[in-house]
Design brief:
With 375 residues, this protein is of the alpha+beta class. It is 36% helix and 23% strand. It is built from 11 helices and 11 strands. Strands 1, 2, 3, 4, 5, 6, 7, 8, 9, 10 and 11 form an 11-stranded mixed β-sheet that branches. It is extended, with a radius of gyration of 35 Å.
């Protein structure tokens, strides 16, 4: 005789079990009105708010996976070495690499010299952009290279080939494997964080707000440099080593002075400091002056340096020249002119000595008839 299955009192009372999905709450009049309006919009052909919101809101995933290769040449001075360490601290998506030896003979299809070596290292490390610091004349002259490596376009070419294999649209079309563009700067007025000793401070790994003046939207070659600055100094959202908030500003300002050597890009790093009043009286005074109870100010952190663009190349560390700075004067020429001025000063001094001796020799003193009276 079959046993009668015991029923759960909760199921007898009509409570939902865990296997069953809970019923939706009853819709109110406002929800019904909103749903009817959305249905009317879909019928009319207007885009829905859900689709529009999908393009605006972030899903929080790490999608922009571009990486920066940060390295220098062998023979850099302590000042440039400390600057490189400060940049590694400020750029969480950078990868550190040992110094390049200028004594080796680097040759390759990417332009030869340093360019071939940097592109090979970037391809091995999976880096899309590069910041290369080069020193010459025993550390007297510093040059900074910024640009996109050949690895970035190679990866994009692989995606294009995959899409062509599936859809058959692009096929095996090659896309700028030489990389680029790249910019060569002359770096001056370098001051590191330890040297400045500023009071500003920020969280390590925080994402910066990149600030550009109006010149980067008006001058043609600065528009290209702006995109490179965004790729190099802009931290990708969701990077594992970055912090999910913003508390500093990285400013780029183009100083177009009357003197040619002053037409350069000034780079500054500031902390965003928000201060709230400690007392109600201070809060009332602050709100009366600014309209807000809290005040926001910028405090410089460091480092600071000046970049003077020399030449823009189409490829990575070489290729067709897109822009040449006609006002740039090579530091070797400046030092040669200074030495020439010192040499001319020496020649003038020696000429004055010869003239003085010649004048003393030509000067004849007449004999005094009374010179032997008291002898």
């Amino acid at each position: 005789m079959a046993k009668k299955r015991r029923q759960d009192p909760a199921s007898e009372a009509g409570a939902p079990s865990y296997d069953e999905a809970p019923a939706d709450p009853p819709a109110s009049d406002d929800d019904a009105a909103l749903s009817s309006e959305s249905e009317d919009e879909r019928v009319a052909g207007a885009p829905s708010t859900a689709v529009a919101r999908a393009h605006i809101t972030s899903d929080g995933k790490y999608r922009n996976k571009q990486r920066l290769l940060l390295l220098s040449s062998r023979g850099v001075t302590a000042r440039y070495r400390h600057l490189l360490e400060d940049l590694r601290t400020l750029i969480p998506h950078s990868k550190k690499e040992s110094k390049l030896d200028h004594g080796k003979n680097y040759n390759g299809a990417a332009g030869g010299g340093y360019g071939a070596a940097v592109n090979a290292i970037a391809e091995a490390r999976g880096c899309h952009t590069v910041l290369f610091l080069e020193c010459r004349k025993r550390g007297q002259d510093g040059y900074m290279w910024l640009g996109r490596t050949s690895h970035a376009n190679t990866a994009f070419d692989g995606d294009a080939e995959g899409a062509g294999g599936e859809g058959g649209g692009l096929g095996k079309k090659r896309l700028m494997i030489a990389g680029g563009p790249s910019v060569k700067f002359h770096i001056t007025n370098v001051h590191t964080m330890d040297e400045l000793k500023m009071t500003g401070n920020c969280m390590k790994g925080s994402r910066p707000v990149l600030s550009f003046d109006n010149s980067f939207d008006e001058i043609e070659h600065l528009k290209l440099i702006k995109h490179l600055f965004v790729d190099v100094f802009g931290t990708p959202r969701g990077h594992p080593k970055s912090k999910p908030f913003v508390d500093r500003v990285l400013g780029f300002y183009y100083a177009d002075g009357k003197v040619s050597w002053r037409r350069a890009i000034w780079v500054r790093n500031y902390q965003i400091l928000e201060e709230t009043a400690s007392t109600a009286k201070e809060a009332h005074t602050q709100k009366k002056l600014t309209g807000h109870a809290s005040s926001t100010s910028l405090i410089e952190i460091g480092p600071r340096f000046v970049l003077n663009p020399i030449r823009i190349f189409r490829g990575s560390f070489g290729g067709q020249t897109l822009y040449v700075n006609e006002d740039f004067v090579n530091p070797n020429v400046i030092r040669a002119n200074e030495k020439r001025e010192k040499g001319e000063k020496y020649v003038r001094r020696k000429g004055a000595e010869r003239k003085r001796k010649q004048r003393e020799e030509e000067l004849v003193v007449p004999e005094d008839p009374l010179a032997d009276v008291f002898s």
